[in-house]
Amino acid sequence: MILEALSPIKGDYHLQNYEETYQNFRWEEAEKNFSWYQSGKVNMGYEAVDRHAEGFRKNKVALYYRSNDRLEKYTFKELKEWSNKVGNVFKEYGVKKGDRLFVFMPRSPELYFAILGGVKIGAIVGPLFEAFMEGAVRDRLLDSGAEYLVTTPELLQRVPEKDLPDLKTIFIVGKDVQEKEKYVDFNKRVEKASKNLDIVWVDREDGLILHYTSGSTGKPKGVLHIHNAMIQQYMTAKWVLDLKEEDIYWCTADPGWVTGTSYGIFGPWLVGATNVVIGGRFSPENWYKALEDFGVTVWYSAPTAFRMLMGAGDEIVNRYDLTSLRHILSVGEPLNPEVIRWGMKVFGLRIHDTWWMTETGAHIVCNYPSMEIRPGSMGKPIPGVEVAIVDNQGKELPPYQMGNLAIKKGWPSMMRQIWNNPEKYASYFLPNGWYISGDSAYMDEDGYFWFQGRIDDVILTSGERVGPFEVESKLVEHPAVAEAGIIGKPDPIRGEIIKAFISLRDGYEPSEQLKEEIQAFVKKGLAAHAAPREIEFLDKLPKTRSGKIMRRVLKSWELGLPTGDLSMMED
Ligand code: WTA
Question: I want to staple 42 with a disulfide (CB 3.0 to 4.6 A). Which of 36, 201, 252, 372 is the partner?
Answer without folding.
Answer: 36
